[in-house]
Amino acid sequence: MIDRTKAPVEGKISDFVLPKAEKFTLGNGIDVLFIKKDNLPIVQAIVIVNAGSKLDPPGHYGLSYLTSLLIDEGAGELDALQLSAEIEKLGSVLNTTSDHDNVVISLMTLRENAARSFGILGSILSSPRLDEKDFEREKKKILSRIIQLKNEPSYIAGQAFEHLVYGSAPYGFPEIGFENTVGAIDAGMIRKFYGENYGGNNTTVILAGNLSRAEARDLCSNSFGEFKNRITISDTVPAPAAQQKKFFVINKDGSAQTELRIGHLSKPRNSEDYFAAKIMNAILGGQFSSRINLNLREKHGFTYGASSGFSHYKNSGYFVVSTSVNTVNTAEAVAQIFKELNGIKTEISEKEISFAKSYLLKQFPAKFETYAQIARNFSSLVVHSLPVNYYEDYRSSIEKISMEEIAAAAGEYVHPENAFVLAVGDAAEIRKQFGAIAHGGITELDIDGNALT
Amino acid sequence: MNELLNLRYKKYTLDNGLEVILYHDASIPLVAVNLWYRVGSANETAGKTGFAHLFEHMMFQGSENIPKEGHFRYVQEAGGSLNGSTSLDRTNYFETLPSNYLELALWLESDRMGFLLPSLTEEKLRNQKDVVMNERRQRYDNQPYGLAWEKLFSGLYPPGHPYHWPTIGWMEDIEKFRLNDVKDFFSNYYTPSNAALVVGGNFEESEAAELIKKYFGDIPPGKQIQDLLPETTPLKENKIIVHEDNVQLSRIYFAWFADKIFGPDDAPLDILSEILSASKNSRLHKSLVFDKQIAQDVSAFQYSAKLSGSFFIIATAKPGVDLDDLKKEIFAELDRLMEKGVTGEELTRSKNGIRSSFIFSLQKIDTVADRLNAYNFYRGEPNSFLFDLERYEKVGAPEVQSTAKKYLTRPYVELRIIPKTNSGQK
Fold it and tell me: How many Å apart are CA B9 and CA B31, to the nearest integer?
């Protein structure tokens, strides 16, 4: 008979070799971070262009996003359909995403098709067609998407919350824009936006692949050499106003649940006490066995899941608790979340800290399994201006954090007294429930997050 | 490059019937433990739907030697990730950990396979019923178009058919879960003789085999499970369902009976779906989204399972576009394809994409472990990556055309999800 009552002791740890990035700069100013990985015949690129929606001029919100959608609709010799067909024939996967800060173009390809796939990627950057008829089509697509999003409760909550935290600019409006602001964009503005903001000295390439160093260099200079330099973008972000605890509600008739967002402005990703805050949040709401999830899901059954975390943009960040709860339990769920926000500032046990550190330290090797994971990890160093030895120091950065530092992070990063409470759902029912807890009154917002008068 | 897809593994069966598949990969310091139970929502009965999915929750509520939420806690503390999923045919439970924690994973998985019931209480069931009802609200009821799948499947498959209900279950069934029924369901299906265990990654083979025997060897086998042999009653005529929902844009769905997984027409149907909708140049996308711009999006795919498959075409109308116009264009494209066939270039494009996706899928050990289990479940041969790829490479243009004619001329279910007439939303 075996003794099942005790957890088995761990075995001998296997070696983990942290992938190393090598940096080189092309003649036109493009920085390349190359990570050699050769277990499979795969090459993965992530191209980061510092031209996200933070650059949208007021009145034309959505300009950066629309430009990013158009960027691969034909380039150089190829029109939109030809370009797509070429990528397909190569069996490669090309993808463009964007956020407030950056436009990110990623390419995954087999090694044997890397040169041709990268050639297309290069021409997307340096000579996109930005044709009128493609513009009209993509613009229409965005306008329909904006209409569709009006019925996605988690999207509405997320956008409205950012608007509450950041106000108007530069992070306080959705990348996709609004019907009227997208409607006001014409093809000339797209070409101007591209001309001013897409350029070599504004771009970083992360390359993880089964290539030698020389092959990586050649691949990049052959593909991206034509990309011209443009003006440099300044990254100063105006600080939003300080906030105070307030209740907001957005009505969605016929909601089966209430989407909740509770939080406030926080500190940038490259703050010195980031690791202390990360450990603190792992305990509070950053993973399944955290206080917030165990309370709301496993103890009360209010929700399928609840979490807390930090969202970071360049030089800025905010803290938010997110969940979707049964409508009848909305106020009680809010009360339990505040209980946990206050609780983390009062007491954190040694056991919780040792769990959180173990969780963060031991999962580290699994974060470097795929080509895309590795490329993404290194891209976040670029986006958030983190040191190149960040991952080499990762483990010691976590190990050395003391209990006092974690408690200090709870004080520094969690502010229930200043938190915005946003509820999206059946407004009449939510108002009734919030009556007893919302002492400063309840503000009703439209689905874009603007106060209804 | 094809040699990469030829995976060396070891397979054997314990005395209690548990199938074991070991796959060694020393390129990573991780180990993936992946268990498939041969039970899915198809094994449920009318009035008692949602049991297989409920266990995806109850299996994390602790067992005789593991406290409530302990499973998560142990795996996370070891730096692992874990989850489970439920489909029509099977449920899987899996964790990926640093390789020195293989024994921990085996201890946890064996405890909930062999010793779950002693710790399964009314209180735990009540709590997870609430969680599942909230999961249903969040992922289905409160999601635009969220009820489409259950409407399509219950339209396509008659009430007695095992694919008639949604895997999460009907809300009124979830509300009525009773502890005794839940326990019976577990005793019937969650046994070593109804499961297969894949261990993949960095481990010593003999040591792993020893540990598997140690933790799973003494769990008694279960009773024989009868194969499901439902009567297939194909639709005799088209069925039209209209559903009003909290949506802004109308969407139209078509669903046909199609071939089952690894059936002779399964791969041609996959390729057909690629040619119809997988890229900008695909037939439906080019016509509806790119040229005419009457659809916001369009997709076609073959969803194949053990007992049968279903082929879907879905399109969302642009504001102001009538679903009848979308339907007309979709069928015009289908008619064209059935009449004139597909080109060699279309075939090459979709095959090249499929080929690289096989190589791309080798990047993560938990994906590989799950695929080994899937191939073992559906084919009895875990190392079927090459077999799988080759069945796509063999498909010729005439076959795509004849397959389209064979299935897409049959009666179908048509679902229209349209905005609520008095939604009060601006």
Answer: 14
Q: What is the dihedral of CA B71, B76, B77, B80, to 10 degrees?
A: 110
**pLDDT (0 to 100) of residue B292:** 97
Average confidence score pLDDT of chain A: 94
As a whole-number percent, the residues of chain B with pLDDT over 70 amount to 99
Task: Using an 8 Å CB-CB cutoff, list chain A residues near B111.
Answer: 4
**For position B423, what pLDDT does the model report?**
46
**Contact assignment for A294 to B69 by CB distance below 8 Å:** yes
Q: Is the pLDDT of residue A244 over 80?
A: yes
Residue B12: phi and psi, rounded to 5, are: -155, 170
List pLDDT tens digits, range B122-174: 999 999 999 999 999 999 988 899 999 999 999 999 998 999 999 999 999 99
pLDDT tier at A340, thresholds 50, 70, 90: very high
**B99 vs A393: CA distance, rounded Å:** 22
Q: Which residue has the tokens 């100013």?
A: A29
Report the residue count for chain B.
Answer: 426
One-letter amino acid at B364 equals: K
Which token pair is A40? 């499979």
Instruction: Kindly give the interhelix angle for B122-136 and B51-58, rounded to the nearest 10 degrees.
Output: 120
- The 10 Å Cβ neighbour count of residue A241 is 9
Cβ within 8 Å, pair A39-B27: yes
What type of residue is B231? E
Tokens of A274: 């980031």
Phi/psi of residue A46, each to 5°?
Answer: -125, 120
Rounded to an integer, what distance in angstroms lies between the CA atom of residue A161 and that of residue A325?
17
Averaged pLDDT, B208-222: 97
Contacting residues of B for A304, CB less than 8 Å apart: 131, 134-135, 138-139
Which DSSP string do the residues of B333-387 spell out, in sequence order?
Answer: HHHHHHHH---HHHHHHHHHHHHHHHHHGGG-HHHHHHHHHHHHHHHS-S--HHH
- Which two structure tokens, joined as six digits, stand for B316? 């969302």
- Tokens at residue A12, please? 């001998």
Reading phi first (left if > 0) and then psi (alpha if -120 to 50, else beta), residue A91 is in: left
Q: Confirm if A384 and A270 have CB atoms less than 8 A apart.
A: yes
CA-to-CA dists, residue B4 to B199, B336, B355, B358, B385, angstroms: 19, 39, 12, 10, 9
Secondary structure element (H or E) that encloses residue A329, with its range: none
**Longest Cα separation, chain A:** 77
Closest approach of A85 to chain B, Cα-based (Å): 7
The span from the CA of B168 to the CA of B171, in Å, is 9
Tell if the CB–CB gap between B131 and A148 is shorter than 8 Å. no
Q: What is the ipTM of this complex?
A: 0.93
Question: How much is the pLDDT for A227?
Answer: 85
DSSP, collapsed to helix, strand or coil, labels residue A309 as strand
What type of residue is B414?
Answer: E
| pLDDT band at residue B398 under the 50/70/90 scheme | very high
User: Before A170, cis peptide (omega within 30)?
Assistant: yes
CA angle B148, B151, B153 (to 5 degrees): 105
Q: Is A438 on the interface with B (CB under 8 A)?
A: no
In this structure, what DSSP letter does residue A9 have? P
Q: Are B260 and B306 in contact (CB under 8 A)?
A: yes
Angle at CA A291, nearest 5°, toward A286 and A296?
100
Q: How many C-beta neighbours within 10 Å does residue B287 have?
A: 18
